[in-house]
Backbone:
């Protein structure tokens, strides 16, 4: 890969990369003994496509490179997903993943931009990442630069009013260099999204807020790639991708049970999960 | 003792006016400044910057949480965002964002809250920030600045813009007396001694600085020489000036247009307690919200006048 050129894997390679990312998410959270593996597993294809599918421009050797595109993980509890992607992208050694959540490690429970290269925003208080992304987008506009800003939002996070403040602002200012991706995994901390706060219809809301809105299967790598490319090319308004996903994707007993939110798998569960993913 | 203030101050502009003028001036030489507004630019005076630099001005509407987040993103890209609204709205509505998006990652965002204190008058308590300094002090990476008058606010704004890291500046709505000459010395974290004296020290910020000078004048008539410090920076606090005042005068009164339990008085008391414990008394808004009314009448009713400072001073003498 030449400096700054996006890493561009084939669909088959991306799918294999997704399997690696899932393994590492499970392993590092089980070592840590805590964390949010299920919230991380739902966004694997989205993140793989962004970083390894030729969508984002970045340079791990120069994390603050001015021409880089930005990824803001607004659902900060999916930090294991962000960390395994950044490690495999080359921002730091994959060995560091074993230190997740330990004192002294820059891999904190929620992302801390001051301590880890490649982290564009410190998140963990839900609702804030899209506004931060808008700040990046305004800065690019002032500079007449072509950076694109991707923000990963949770679907529980859609409850937060700040998201909709930011949605109105991005549309008003026609910030077409912003793409919001909703990891719509249908579950949040204490239950299914439709039971906790049924805000449906979601896509219609983003459309009504004047965002170019696509709905896709967030585990279909080709669909994810196509949607991201269309979002990047959209002119005159911001883009939203509602990615229908499954919380805990790839691990049957986690998929079926929202109460796995915020829980690491035990050693025994880890073994079963890795078997299901075809690792042993 | 009834105080008839016979010290005459020249009236100056409001500190919000000085902020607006200084910001527009800074915009001419610093192309990194981007101003973010919550649709109150004609109140905060950021409209003067907006008129001159529309391409570096963003009105996000009445949405302070989003406003703060946009400021954080701009700062992360190397811009110098100045984000402004009424003090109560930006600090209270935007507080989680100030904590998580700005203070924690230590981003170079300058937060300006106008219409602070009860001296806004008739609009009433919903618009009166009396807790903003406490909230700013709850953000450990923030510098906290409360300038007293027009000339010192002009200097405070450029000092704030030259500093690196998050900062909060509180400015007010009404015109206020001028306590400084033109072009005063102003260093963040360094108190200005406006009057010398060794019998007692009056420490104040914001509009209470002129009240403290008035009080010192009245006390002098009774043979008490009061030192007056403009403690314009609540953090970093000029601990050395507080320690010296405690040692040399033995008594300190702190006055602020803010909840008395959790503002300048608290940090000064902590510094004194640690380095040179002395007798202290505090002037501020007691445990209450104020009400609508004429600003001077409100200051009188809620205990924020020279007379109240004199009474507290006398209780220590």
Residues:
């Amino acid at each position: 890969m030449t400096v700054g050129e996006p890493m561009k894997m084939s669909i088959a390679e991306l799918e294999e990369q997704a399997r690696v990312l899932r393994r590492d998410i499970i392993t590092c959270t089980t070592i840590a003994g805590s964390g949010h593996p299920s919230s991380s597993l739902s966004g694997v294809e989205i993140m793989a496509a962004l970083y390894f599918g030729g969508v984002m421009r970045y340079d791990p050797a120069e994390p603050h490179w001015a021409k880089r595109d930005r990824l803001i993980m607004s659902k900060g509890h999916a930090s294991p997903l962000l960390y395994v992607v950044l490690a495999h992208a080359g921002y730091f050694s994959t060995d560091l993943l074993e230190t997740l959540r330990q004192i002294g490690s820059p891999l904190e429970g929620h992302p801390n931009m001051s301590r880890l290269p490649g982290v564009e925003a410190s998140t963990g208080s839900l609702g804030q990442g899209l506004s931060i992304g808008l700040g990046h987008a305004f800065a690019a506009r002032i500079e007449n630069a072509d950076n694109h800003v991707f923000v990963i939002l949770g679907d529980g996070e859609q409850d937060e009013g700040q998201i909709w403040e930011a949605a109105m602002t991005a549309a008003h200012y026609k910030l077409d260099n912003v793409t919001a991706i909703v990891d719509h995994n249908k579950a949040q901390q204490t239950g299914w999204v439709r039971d906790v706060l049924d805000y449906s219809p979601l896509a219609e809301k983003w459309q009504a807020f004047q965002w170019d809105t696509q709905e896709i299967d967030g585990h279909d790598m080709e669909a994810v790639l196509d949607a991201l490319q269309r979002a990047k090319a959209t002119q005159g308004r911001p883009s939203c991708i509602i990615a229908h996903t499954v919380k805990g994707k790839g691990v049957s007993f986690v998929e079926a049970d929202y109460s796995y939110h915020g829980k690491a798998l035990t050693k025994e569960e880890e073994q079963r999960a890795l078997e299901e993913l075809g690792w042993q | 003792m009834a105080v008839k203030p016979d010290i005459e101050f020249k009236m100056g502009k409001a500190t919000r006016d000085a902020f607006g003028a200084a910001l527009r001036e800074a915009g001419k030489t610093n192309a990194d400044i981007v101003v973010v507004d919550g649709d109150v630019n004609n109140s905060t005076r950021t409209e003067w910057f907006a008129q001159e630099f529309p391409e570096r001005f963003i009105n996000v509407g009445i949405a302070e949480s989003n406003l703060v987040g946009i400021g954080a993103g701009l700062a992360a890209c190397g811009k110098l965002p100045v984000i402004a609204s009424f003090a109560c709205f930006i600090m209270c509505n935007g507080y989680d964002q100030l904590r998580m998006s700005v203070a924690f990652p230590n981003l170079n965002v300058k937060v300006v809250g106008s219409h602070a204190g009860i001296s806004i008058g008739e609009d009433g308590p919903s618009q009166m920030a009396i807790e903003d300094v406490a909230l700013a002090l709850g953000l450990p990476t923030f510098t906290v600045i409360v300038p007293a008058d027009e000339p010192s606010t002009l200097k405070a704004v450029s000092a704030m813009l030259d500093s690196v890291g998050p900062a909060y500046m509180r400015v007010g709505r009404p015109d206020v007396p001028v306590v400084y000459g033109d072009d005063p010395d102003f260093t963040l974290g360094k108190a200005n001694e406006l009057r010398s004296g060794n019998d007692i020290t009056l420490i104040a910020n914001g509009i209470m600085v002129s009240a403290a000078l008035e009080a010192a004048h009245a006390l002098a008539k009774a043979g008490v020489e009061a030192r007056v410090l403009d403690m314009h920076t609540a953090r970093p606090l000029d601990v050395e000036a507080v320690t010296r005042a405690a040692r040399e005068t033995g008594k300190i009164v702190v006055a602020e247009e803010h909840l008395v339990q959790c503002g300048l008085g608290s940090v000064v008391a902590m510094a004194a307690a640690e380095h040179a414990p002395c007798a202290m008394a505090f002037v501020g808004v007691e445990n209450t919200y104020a009400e609508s009314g004429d600003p001077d009448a409100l200051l009188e009713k809620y205990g924020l006048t020279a007379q109240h400072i004199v009474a507290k001073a006398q209780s220590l003498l």
Q: What stands out?
A: Chain B has a mean pLDDT of 97.
